[in-house]
Amino acid sequence: MIKQILRKLPRKSQKSDSLDSAGNDSDNHASNSDDGVQCTNFGNKISSRLRVVKRVSSAVFPASIMAGVEAVEPNLSFNNVSNPQKPNLFISKLNLCCEACNSSDPDKGTAEQDLKRRTLIELVDFVSSGSAKFNEAAIAAMCKMCAINLFRVFPPKYRSNTASGEADDEEPMFDPAWSSLQLVYDLFLQFISYSSLDAKVAKKYIDQPFILRLLDLFESEDPRERVCLKTILHRIYGKFTVHRPFVRKAVSNIIYTFVFETERHNGIAELLEIFGSIISGFAVPLKEEHKMFLCRVLIPLHKPKSVGVYHQQLTYCVVQFIDKDPKLANSVITGLLKYWPVTNSQKELMFISESEEILEMISMTEFQKIMVPLFRRIACCLNSFHYQVAERAHMLWNNEHVLNLIKHNRQVIFPLIFPALERNSRNHWHQTVLNLTKNTRKMLSEIDDELTLACERKLEEENSQSNEASEKRKLTWERLELAAGFEPAAANFVPPLKPATCSVAC
């Protein structure tokens, strides 16, 4: 037994000597290489850095993962090593990219950044070539490198919150470190999209805490980073089916916090884009969980003032749900009426447009359930003094499907709409709205002239009754004023206060 141990000792020293010699040879080779991955000035630094990488790797990766992994100089090119050594070289280069740059020495820090950038470019090219094979150690090293470089805490937000429903007009803020971050995102996207990636092994490292940290990055103010995150999260959702319920729940929690607490989040539009494609893949009939997501997550998203930033994506998600189950249109319209804006004309324009899209897909039975409250709200929009809102409400009659719904239910809808049209024709200040009002009244007469005349007569009766009631109130007040004028003392008389009694026994 002792002899066997003694035989192993010189072999380890020879192995380390061979690694050192390989490192020196690789330094000389890298100095003459055409792609400039490494130069002679970094030879000594790479050798010392490699020893640090070995210690870090053995501390981070479990022994079962690192067993049999032979470290390779990270400055070598993939073309200069054999195929069995490429996975080990891949891990060495990933570990090299895990190290933070030296901020105390600007020149040295710049050189390290350039080295890291060239290494990342080489890794992206290697993975995109399709010849890579990822074992468990490589998957763990990839997730570790991405976590170190991407997961970070964003600074506090000092930009003021927008008070309107329009999109944010402020200039987007771009991350100065995006050139390095983009390479990491490209590498991770290539890695996730790799066809031969074993999802059963990868899910050990792309786990729920990893996904939560990834979702936190949607708070980034750099739109380029959010676009990359959107693509990566969508690929994770497609490849790791075991994480799908967790992703839906985590995104729901983000939206709950946004709607009911902060009303501040930069990535709501991107998250809704992801869910737009997810909803389109839901099986029919819809699960109760998915219907709850519509009612508790998507519909309350109409409440925040900044709805204009993500309204297009939100409408797409809602329409996808109604396309899967037309009966959900009733719930959506009811939710819209609940959050309908009163003083925000831009949001009102969005809500009218979304209502029109829903009405194009609604069935006659579901329409009859919500037509009374909906067209009461439409009548208020017709009378809006904001001419764009009034104009947009009149445009509903130009939609053939909406007009068909109105025709079949004109006995209920005409009496709701006609008084608003009559008020517009008498009082509205904008000429375009007046012209649209005339056209709409003409259209109603063409659909059913008798019903239109009946609505007109009923409106005249109501106006006459209102005038009579107004005259009665006027005469009553005149008599009261006259009576008060004849008896001024009685009018100014104040009865004395009664002495207070103590209800509690002393």
Protein model, in words:
By secondary structure, the protein is mainly alpha-helical. The protein is 68% helix and 0% strand. It is built from 23 helices and no strands. The chain has helices at 2-31, 43-60, 63-66, 86-96, 106-128, 136-150, 178-192, 199-202, 208-216, 223-239, 244-262, 268-280, 288-298, 311-324, 329-338, 345-359, 364-382, 387-394, 400-408, 410-427, 431-447, 449-486, 488-492. Helix 7 (178-192) packs parallel to helix 10 (223-239) and helix 15 (329-338) packs antiparallel against helix 16 (345-359). The protein is elongated and about 105 Å long. The chain starts with a helix and ends in a 14-residue tail after the last helix. Mean pLDDT is 82; it is low at 10-68, 159-168 and 500-506.
* Terminus-to-terminus distance: 102 Å
Principal-axes shape call = elongated
Fraction of residues in β-strands: under 5%
Structural class: mainly alpha
Write the element-wise H/E pattern from the N-terminal end onward. Answer: HHHHHHHHHHHHHHHHHHHHHHH
Mean pLDDT: 82
What Rg do the Cα atoms give? Answer: 36 Å
Low-confidence stretches: 10-68, 159-168, 500-506
Question: Fraction of residues in helices?
Answer: 55-70%
Number of strands: 0
> Total number of helical segments?
23
Outline the biggest β-sheet: none
Region (Disordered): 1-38
Organism: Gossypium hirsutum
Biased composition (Low complexity): 20-36
Function: The B regulatory subunit might modulate substrate selectivity and catalytic activity, and also might direct the localization of the catalytic enzyme to a particular subcellular compartment.
